[in-house]
Specification:
16% strand, disordered C terminus, Spore Coat Polysaccharide Biosynthesis Protein SpsA, Chain A, seven-stranded mixed beta sheet
């Protein structure tokens, strides 16, 4: 129920997906978002999860303010029956798909923000939420990582039939929930997942790109600023520490000082410092191996005879062959 002070304020629903491992970083995302929120905005935060420890929930609950509420939503009862029959691969957790179920689970909202937990917000998310969508399904930022390397460009165009500069990152979304429901996006997703089980590099992101293609409003890169994006010269409103560019793992990450500034103002400050100290050579080598595998898989899927493109967009032009090049990231 709204208080008297909230009655005439903009209400912004914001969704995160999180497990116990990411609770420390979610606290940073929340701290930064709260500190930069317009005082005329009421923010309803929903943390979608499949079970969180009580201590972590208590720490985050303590961050609530008069204008910001935090609710932890265990989605297993609603989603498990659907995902169980889809026989997901062992190395994918169901949580990556939670954002696709937001329109179904929260019918009271027509529009919402979805944010990944590995972010720092330096602007007012009210401005992001107020993005006019019209009948478009989402507003998002084109993925700088996809544009950064030939293997990933091949994956977007050969694997999904989407021009690489139109492939968006799903870590920051303005979602038109009414259109998701009207167009049956969740039903189309479960049908494709059950019928074809496409091989993917970024499962949730790839399905969203495939299903939303042609109905995307592309935002300024400052609303999802990634470290790899060297062409952005503005002041970012939201920094995304995605992939292997995480300040709790590496020093000298772009905008890492912003992350640490907010981290020091959370109940997880010492935990995050301990995570940074514990990340060593073995972890770096594992990420290097994962990066190389990511490139190989992207290239293989981009050239595969059966993928999103060949099933959903067979009219797209044949993708030219290219010489493989690994190691886009320096770890």
């Amino acid at each position: 129920m709204k208080t008297a002070n909230q009655a005439n304020k903009t209400v912004v629903p914001v969704f995160f997906s999180c497990d116990n491992n990411y609770l420390p970083f979610l606290s940073v995302a929340l701290r930064s978002m709260i500190d930069n929120l317009n005082p005329a905005t009421v923010c309803r935060v929903y943390v979608l999860n499949d079970g969180l420890n009580e201590e972590g929930v208590a720490r985050l609950n303590a961050m609530q303010t008069e204008n910001v509420t935090i609710e932890f939503v265990d989605v297993r009862p609603q989603i498990a029956p659907i995902l169980e029959k889809l026989n997901l691969r062992d190395y994918y957790t169901p949580s990556i798909y939670y954002r696709l179920f937001i329109p179904t689970l929260f019918p009271q909202y027509s529009k919402a923000l979805y944010l990944d937990a590995d972010i720092a917000v330096t602007g007012d998310i009210t401005r992001l939420y107020n993005t006019p969508l019209g009948e478009r399904l989402v507003a998002a930022v084109s993925d700088a990582i996809i544009a950064s390397h030939e293997d990933f460009r091949l994956y977007a165009e050969g694997g999904l039939g989407i021009p690489y500069h139109q492939y968006f990152n799903s870590g920051v979304l303005v979602m038109n929930l009414d259109q998701f429901r009207l167009q049956g996006i969740r039903e189309r997703f479960t049908y494709l997942l059950e019928r074809y089980r496409f091989d993917t590099v970024c499962p949730d992101q790839d399905y969203l790109n495939a299903l939303c293609f042609g109905q995307v409003l592309y935002l300024d890169n400052g609303w999802n600023k990634m470290s790899i994006d060297q062409n952005y010269n503005g002041t970012p409103a939201l920094i995304h520490y995605n992939m292997f560019f995480k300040p709790w793992q590496y020093d000298n990450i772009a905008y890492g000082e912003i992350f640490w500034d907010y981290a020091e103002r959370t109940a997880y400050a010492e935990d995050i410092r301990a995570i940074r100290r514990a990340f060593g050579l073995k972890d770096r080598l594992a990420q290097l191996s994962a990066n190389r595998a990511l490139h190989r898989n992207a290239r293989r899927i981009g050239l595969a005879p059966m993928n999103f493109r060949t099933v959903l967009r067979p009219e797209t032009v044949e993708v030219p062959m290219a010489e493989p090049r690994l190691g886009a990231y320096e770890i």
